[in-house]
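Researcher: Last one for today. Full complex below.
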Amino acid sequence: MSFLPYAVAAWVCLVGLYGIVTSRNLIHLALCLTVMQSSTYLLLLAIGYVKGGGPPIFKGVKLGTTSVDPVVQALTLTDIVVSVTVIALILALALDVHKQAGTVDPDEVREMSG
Amino acid sequence: MTWALPLPVVIPLIAAALCTAGDHVLPRRLGDAIGVVGAAGAFAFSLVILVASEEHTRLTWFGGWTPRGHAAIGIAFVADPLGAGVAALATGLALASMLYSWSFLRHAARPYDSLMLLFGGAMAGFALAGDIFNMFVWFELMGVAAYALAGFEIKHVGPIQGAINFAVSNTVGAYMILTGIALLYARTGALNLAQIGHSLAGHKPDGLVIVALTLLVCGFLIKAAIAPFHLWLADAHAVAPAPVCALFSGVMVVIGLLGVTRCYWTVFDASLAPQAHDVRAVLVALGIFTAVLGAVMAFLQRHLKRLLAYSTISHMGIALVAIALLDEKSLGGAASLLLAHGLLKASLFLCCGILLVRFDAIDELRLHGKGRALPLVGLMFGLGAIALAGVPYVGTYLGHAQIDEGATLDGIDWVQPLLMIAAGVSSAAILRAGARIFLGWGPARDPLLSPEPPESAPERSASMPALLAVTGTLLVLGLVVSVAPGLGQRIEQAAGRARDRIAYVDRVLRDHERPAPPRPPVAVEPTTTDSVLYGIGGTLIAVGLALAGLYRRRLPELVRAPLRSALGPPLQVLRLAHSGVVGDYVAWITVGTAVVGGLWALLLRG
Amino acid sequence: MTRRVRIGIFLPALAGLAALLVWAYTGIPAFGDYQGPYGFVVTKLATPLRHMDNAVNSVTYDIRGIDTMGEEFILFGAVIGVVLLLRGEEGRTEDVHDDTGSDLVRVFGTLAIGAVVLVGLWVVAFGFVTPGGGFQGGVAVASGALLLYLAAGYREWAAFGNESILDPIKGIGGGGYAVIGLAALVGGMPFLTNFFHGGVTGSVFSGGSAAFVNWSAGIEVAAALVILFSEFLEEYIVPLAKGS
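Model: Here's the assembly. Have a good evening.
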């Protein structure tokens, strides 16, 4: 039972990777990258969990009460922003491909080979 | 003096913000000037930090969060000579690129300046960071700026595809790095490099540590364009503007190798030192594979920037072999090699930019003979190519010589001939292209070379003297690396300090400063006869193979037919693998990671 | 490479990677058994030292403030990148007919804009007291702006999402973060030190200068996201305008 969060994180990562490799649509590919990113959020947050711990907000709560790790939450926040920005760029690129080549299938655009 | 540590990063970032904020308000040239001043300021401060770091490793804790009871809470910038040197290279090349772009891309949209500044500042930040997650943040900032810069020419499909391949490959790498960071955090509860290393020290590596090593190394090797993670680099170079390529080949790939070096020596050396030879074996194999593959692929190109990109890949392979030998001399050799290579390759790319402006073409065959009108550029191109081959006492020779010494000391003598061949073959490709373009030698048609989409010049009236000045300066700096008095010894000393984990931990966590090392003499160190011979050998291979490439029709059919049937199928397979399709690239990344991880799992376990 | 070859080499590698990940994850301490010192040191220090209730934001804006600064600039750079990549879509957007059809959507949407923006600003302001902070609040404010498009149509949005207003805001937000850090430097303290920290725990004024970087982040995120929405909307609207 206690391995489940990590198993899910691994599964999500692998599914995302599979999606990227087999993708036929650049928008789908960008979202698969998001999925892969989500696996890192899961991993980080699962690592920081403290059994019986409350949220790391101490308003009205006595100092020293057990709380979960706030550091991984801050890391996850940074991670989310980073992921959003990269996805935005890739989506913009996908739009550009569609404008120039009329398709969003990465397999069909073969200008760079050899 | 520690107040200056954040500046090589903060100054370009603020300049970028100013450029954007003033976009519709300030006149165009004022915005450009802010950009150049920002880059210059960053470079100046990084030089100051480099000089200061030679005495003592400089350290600053952001926000004043110094360690409490041996636990590092805040983020530190740790300037040792190696990191400070890479930061100086990054900001210096960024400045050169911005000066070049002042003429080359005069009408570029304002975002270009901001992105270049972000790119340079992020690389400096990565080089100086002492916290692994902070390194990741700068890595991503570098990446974001680079993806946008690569896709600059949005009017053609080629650049966009190149940018997509670049972005997806490097982002997958970034997620791998992040997973590695998470694993290390789970084990040690720390993000500070010194503290992670300290916590792992003495414990035998288990699955978590081995896989963290794999993920971190493979993630960084994607950025460093090591095979089979290298496929995106040629695409990105083919399409990015020339000054951007100069930064990519000159310093961005170096950041990947610095990541591997820094993580290994501060974090993993702690628990993997007894099994270092196993770590070394896998990385040396990857390096040699990359060096040879890059050199061969370079020879098959006619698009100048792609050719140079594959040559970069080959040199990164050579540097990885040197780093992987895990000793002081070789690491110093890698640093010297990368310094010379960075400067020379950047100047070669800037030469390509000049060719593009004059002749509106970047294809070796299309430019056949046209370069005769530009003898100065031809001279620079030829010198750069030869210096990359390792001619004794020119350019990359210092690096090769140090690597030779290091390998001999380790008893791994079979490495040097392979590296010599790789350097020779990749330089042969550049020489061949140079001879065809600037001397008009060789036929104007060559079926061996892969066709690529055409490229047109961004400006039709760039100021030649300005472009030539920047290109020439970088070339000269690159050439003299091998004979700069005292440089070799200082680089070796820097390498030695980068490897010294105990001293690093002492400095960062306990604020103990080691006594300053003795200043090395300001003299050119003699090199061994073996190194001279290897240097001459590499040059001969370069020249000979270039001529063979140009004039192979004149070889008797008796020689050509067996060569064709022997080399044909493998070359065809290579070309198929470099398909330009991002799904293939990520598949190869997965294969590479699984193989490296599997090998290390078997070798390092128990 | 054909797809079959690609999948043929990929699937075994994926299986190998899966095995490696599972092997690595078994080395992590059991779920709920977080041991590392970092989290505990932070929660024991954050509130007493900085008078903050929200430990996560004390990490984000104070203890690991330089990370957040880098992240700000990543957002900044990505938005510049998107503008660069989507440039050149010139077209007459005045004639587009995409007004909202339903009166209910128009009225409700307009009311909601105010509410959403207010909530967003509140989330930013109380970032050190309750969950929230610059990023979360900034996103909320930006989505309030997007409601303007949904409720009123492109013409109203175009007046608001104008680049010449947003670029300076974005620059000031991002640059502001770095400048606040520099201010500490000038005062002789390490970069990004939280000066005049303290304040009353649990109030809007806790957090010290970290509160300023919190607001910087919020302003920048809101401006950046509105620019992103603008760019992508333009891609949709201009062909629509051409077609009609």
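The mean pLDDT of chain B is 88. The first strand of chain B starts at residue 58 and ends at 61.
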